[in-house]
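Researcher: Please predict.
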Amino acid sequence: MKITAVRLGQIAVPLRVPFKTALRTVDSVRDVVVEIDTDTGEKGFGEAPPTGVITGDTTGAIIGAIQDHIAGKLIGRDVDEFEDVIQEVQKAVVHNTSAKAAVDMALYDLYGQLYHIPVYKLLGGARRTIVTDITISVNPPEQMAEDAVNAVKRGYDTIKVKVGVNPSLDVERLLAIRRATGPDVRIRIDANQAWTPKQAVRILDQMEERGIGLELVEQPVKAADFDGLKYVTDRSPVPVLADEAVFSPEDALRIMQYHAADMVNIKLMKCGGLYNAQKIISAAEVYGCECMLGCMLEAKISVNAAVELACAKKVITKIDLDGPVLCSEDPILGGAVFREKEITVSDEPGSGIRGIETGKITWL
């Protein structure tokens, strides 16, 4: 199975409601799609969202990295030379982790098809079904409480609440949500780097004193503030999850070695794909560190790849893969089945993605 072409396209999928965090507001998913063609007719699919405010990767940067630096390394290569081909992708250009992730997942898709095995079984095969949380965007407290209640009515028992816009309101936001949802719903919060270390500890103490009962807090301080992250972890009454601070296996290993956070969030777009994500998982298994498998605001192809990994490994104990259920439509054919909080991986060879609905993609 030799690679004959690398095609790029763009999709636009509207969201049910605007997605608001401390970093950005988005009303639709606009991603770059990768299709890798082979001489045997199989196609591998990947996808990358332009999340410049987090990864630094814009649409133009993703397209340019693949067209100008990565695609040429792949044409004519045999998919069975997998380790070497994957490493060529990682070495082709510095940074540009989203572009690398999109190509990486397409290659894993082809490798699974070559040997007639689903990617999740190729990587470990721990389970077929996982349960995700759902994200509540930053809004006034009463709106967030209403959104949380609606999520519970849809069957979700774990919600992830965005905070950090006007930190003085964050305690009131969480109080309103807890009162509206009752004591049995698990609540995670994500500050998206919005707080200072001392501010984070103060706010988390207040939330605990008010009886909100948080499961975890995600990335309370700036991504580069390693010492600040450790300061919060050492003093917080709530377990701390590192997200934007973890871009590479080296980042994850440093956090685990110094216990700068209690858990790490693996996102394919930050680490460059399934290949590097597995390195983070190996470190987590050695250090006994729980992992969350998360996503950016992405459509189904790239989230499907994350589902494959989440279903492969038991050290991934927390799931934040709600991108497709936040969308108002799904133009992707095949792959995992998303039934609100329950996600079931495909047993088709590779990733199970068969293509994109006619008229829903613009090929470049």
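Model: Residues 3-116+357-363 form a domain with the Enolase-like; domain 1 fold (CATH 3.30.390.10).
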